[in-house]
Every structure is written in C-alpha cells, then in structure tokens.
Amino acid sequence: MTEVSAPQRLARAVAGSSVSERVADVQERLYRPVLDWVKNSAFHSDILGHSIHPPLTDLTLGSWFSASLLDVAGGVEARRGAALLVAAGSAAAVPTAFAGASDWSWMAGEERRIGAVHALGTDAATFLQIGSLIARLRGRHGLGVALSLAGNGIMVGAGFLGGHLALKRGTARRTAAASG
Q1: Structural domain contains residue 9
Q2: What is the domain range of residue 82?
Q3: Percentage of residues in the chain with pLDDT exceeding 70?
Q4: How many whole angstroms separate alpha carbon 63 and alpha carbon 54?
C-alpha cells in the first residue's frame, strides 16, 4: 500500500472539513450576484475544451512572481518594472477570478469545499498584491516587497489546491457534467 503524501493529505483534509463548508457557504452568499452572472458568461467557455481559468492564472501568477524576482535580484533599477508587474498581475486577477468563480459555481461537495478554500487564499493574495502596489506607488518599496512576497507565499498553497481541483479532480474539463 502506498503512503499518501502530505500535500494529498492536506487536500483530503480541506475536502472533508466542516470549516471549508462554512467558508463555501459564506462565499456563496457574498458572491451570489457574481456567481449568477459568470455561470452563463463567456468566462465559462468551452472554446478551449477546458476551463479558461488555468491559463489565466499563468498571467496573474507569472506577473506577481516575476515582480518578486525583480525585487530580490533586480536592484533599485528594477523597482519600476516590479511595480508594473504587480499592477499587471492585479489587473489579470479580475478575469482570472471571474473564470474561477464560473467553474466553482457548478461544483458541489468536496470540490466545492476545496474551491472555496482556494478562492479564499487567492482573494487574500490579491489583496496583499494590491496593498503592495499601493505601498510601491507611495514610495514604500520595502513594504511593497514584503506584501508581495506574502501574497506569493499564500498563492503557493492556494495554487496547489486549484491545481488539485483542475488536474486531480478534473474540474477544468468541459463536459456536459462540468458545464451544468
């Protein structure tokens, strides 16, 4: 019998958690108008044969992680570029979130719970990145870097859960069952 890895145990714990269910219930109430809209919008397209959410995450995360790379290795000359990347990632987070919400609006049970925790993490990371951008624009570069690094740290965990949903559980597929 194979041993279950720590990340897989984490995903199973989130999937079975009553706290995750409460998070999902709160998010469903808070975001109901958005969920109703995105469920039947272009954000729930089958044009790719799968969800558009995963490729959109590449834009968001690629920008944010690249900004941190510039922050750590680019020196003072890279500050403007890093701020631009944080802004681009934050702008890309909007359609990325809509696409993710459209997928989540059709989920139930364990997938719904995992998706809710994934969304909570991505929301927190997005707010940290927006805070980073504001700090940078106000000349508080050190605070901006710290907020961005914290946001990226949270995105590692949230991204794992999103990848688990899309790849392990198949929620990114566009089939009759996945499209509602």
Answers
A1: no
A2: 48-180
A3: 96
A4: 15
The amino acid sitting at 85 is L
State both tokens at 166: 């899309």
SS3 41: coil
The pair of structure tokens assigned to 156 is 């590692």
Please indicate, yes or no, if residue 85 is contained in any of the structural domains: yes
Cα–Cα distance for residue pair 94/30, rounded to 1 Å: 17
| 115 CB-side CA count, 13 A | 28
Considering its fold, how many domains does the chain have in total? Answer: 1
Band of pLDDT at residue 4, cut at 50, 70 and 90: confident
Q: What's the token pair of residue 8? A: 């897989």
Which of 37, 4, 20, 39 has the alpha carbon at shortest distance from 116? 20
* Residue 173 within any structural domain of the chain: yes
pLDDT confidence bin for 39, thresholds 50/70/90: confident
Identify the CA nearest to 76 among candidates 150, 139, 153: 139
Tell me the backbone φ, ψ of residue 50, rounded to 5 degrees: -155, 175
* Closest CA relative to residue 114, chosen from 124, 98, 125, 103: 103
